[in-house]
Amino acid sequence: MPRGRYSLHDPHDHTPLGEEHFHCAPGPSGWRYVAQLTTPDGDHRGSLDLAVDALGRPIRMEANAGGWQVRGAAIDGVTWVRTDPAGAEATEGNVAAPGFTGSSPAFLIATARLLRLTPGAPATRVRLLALTDPVLAPRTVDQAWALLSRAEHPTDSGPLVVDEYQVTALDTGEVHTVHIAGDVVLSAPGIELEHLETPPSTFEDSDDSDDFED
Predict the structure, then answer these.
(1) Residue of 189, 181, 207, 184 whose CA lies nearest to 23
(2) Which end of the chain is more exposed for a tag (fewer CB within 10 A), N or C?
(3) Burial class (CB in 10 A: 0-12, 13-18, 19+), 133
(4) How many Å separate Cα 160 from the centre of its chain?
(5) Around Cβ 199, how many Cβ atoms within 10 Å?
(6) Pairing relation of β-strands 3-9 and 191-196?
(7) CB 53 within 8 A of CB 73
(8) Interval 52-103: pLDDT, tens
(9) pTM of the entire predicted model
(10) What is the SS3 assignment for 70?
């Protein structure tokens, strides 16, 4: 069960945005990721609980930030409910998309799992529901994902398989690179893996995610 810490920053001007303290686990029914987010000063600023099924589809997603909460799942595309800070109103939404995205590394893992790309194959287009900072405002985005390479690197705990993805934002044409090992993002725009207590898990692991503790 990987447990660690990512540092988050603005991918354009590198302004520090805080840290994401996470743990995650694969299992026969899918994968779950739980994280607490802090500001650069160490104050609490949000949380994420994401569970996907064996095909990478979100079966439960709960995000909190800026006092706002979004809960969603894969129902007729993706369906979500966004609640205001006062809790007085709830706005529902639905879009024909297979998953969510946002600033958390968890969404990169989930999308890679969803697409199941082959190294060297043409890019695959995907539409996602983005939860944009700082108040989880929903916005539909279109991306193209390509798995450029898959390489094995020796480590003290055994071989580490690293996938290099090229992700293109189709509305702006902006292209960036994402490196993923198992269920951990090694590097991506705005994301740095600062600490990892245990090696990444692979999705072939037989550990039961029902034993996952909050």
Answers:
(1) 184
(2) C
(3) middle
(4) 20
(5) 15
(6) antiparallel
(7) no
(8) 999 999 999 999 999 999 999 999 999 999 999 888 889 999 999 999 999 9
(9) 0.92
(10) strand
